[in-house]
């Protein structure tokens, strides 16, 4: 920060302030959720809302301390992987839980020809909605929440030993293979969420599931695709160096600065979307299908 000119200092100060505001907005929202939302959904919704402010915080730390990028990416990667699993669980909870969902879609089928894996494979059969298929969908996101942190931890261990170079994508280096494996796990997890969303989006329209899914998709696109594209531009030296920063360091800094602004906006919008009172949006089908629900519904 000592080498920054006046506009640079102003930019860093503004982005740091945006990060602090995002954290405060999230804390206020977490308190509201803890007080107003039923305990069965409370932790899931807090986890999902935490994604944007945590990514903003890690990006802010990475912006001020460039050498910490591996560790900040590690933290953001763990949160991102957990949030994908939590979003799938939230959709199941919003349908009334697994038992109610299975009863509601007793004769229904999942359309598995959906993105990001099989959107072009229209010939794929539709899968019956059973306890087993729900298990496989939950496993599809859970494996990502488990294996991604393990692979990132392995990357850091190799990096400290000098064997892992983030931008060295030669077949002989571990970076390419670890990145490909993480990419395959990510696609499987996103595919599971997409299959579930396609089935429940009409039923949960009254619960604002479409804007919630859009916010979740923005986090995926901005945190994964945007950052990777900028890093590729940096490695190809399309992004010029700016002494004392190399092209890769400058690309990383640009990605972090963009993420801070984007995650700030997503944090504020998430507060408005998730602020609705959930018991006011309970679908009438839940009362009709579940005896005893009438007493439990607030």
TrEMBL record:
Membrane topology per record = Multi-pass membrane protein
TM helices/strands, residue ranges: 12-32, 44-65, 71-89, 135-159, 174-193
Assigned keywords, A-Z: Membrane, Transmembrane, Transmembrane helix
Where does the record say this protein resides? Answer: Membrane
Q: Which domain of life is it from?
A: Eukaryota
Give the UniProt entry's GO cellular component terms: membrane
Q: What is this protein called?
A: OSTA protein
Q: Which organism is it from?
A: Elachura formosa (spotted wren-babbler)
């Amino acid at each position: 920060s000592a080498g920054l000119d006046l506009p640079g200092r102003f930019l860093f100060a503004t982005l740091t302030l945006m990060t602090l505001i995002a954290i405060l907005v999230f804390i206020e929202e977490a308190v509201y959720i803890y007080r107003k939302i039923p305990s069965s959904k409370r932790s899931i919704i807090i986890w999902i809302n935490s994604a944007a402010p945590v990514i903003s915080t890690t990006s802010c730390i990475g912006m001020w301390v460039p050498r910490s990028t591996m560790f900040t990416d590690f933290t953001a990667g763990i949160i991102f992987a957990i949030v994908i699993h939590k979003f799938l669980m939230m959709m199941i909870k919003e349908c009334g839980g697994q038992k109610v969902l299975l009863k509601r879609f007793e004769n229904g089928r999942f359309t598995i020809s959906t993105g990001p894996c099989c959107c072009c494979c229209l010939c794929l059969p539709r899968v019956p909605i059973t306890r087993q298929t729900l298990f496989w969908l939950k496993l599809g996101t859970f494996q990502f929440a488990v294996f991604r942190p393990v692979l990132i931890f392995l990357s850091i261990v190799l990096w400290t030993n000098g064997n892992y170079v983030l931008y060295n994508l030669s077949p002989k280096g571990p970076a390419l293979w670890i990145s490909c494996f993480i990419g395959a796990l990510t696609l499987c997890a996103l595919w599971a969420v997409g299959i579930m969303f396609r089935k429940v989006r009409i039923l949960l329209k009254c619960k604002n599931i479409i804007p919630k899914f859009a916010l979740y998709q923005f986090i995926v696109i901005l945190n994964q695709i945007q950052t990777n594209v900028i890093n590729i531009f940096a490695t190809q030296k399309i992004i010029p160096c700016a002494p004392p920063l190399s092209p890769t360091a400058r690309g990383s800094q640009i990605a972090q600065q963009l993420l801070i602004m984007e995650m700030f906006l997503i944090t504020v919008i998430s507060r408005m979307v998730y602020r609705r009172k959930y018991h006011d949006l309970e679908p009438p089908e839940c009362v009709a299908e579940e005896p005893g629900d009438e007493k439990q519904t607030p």
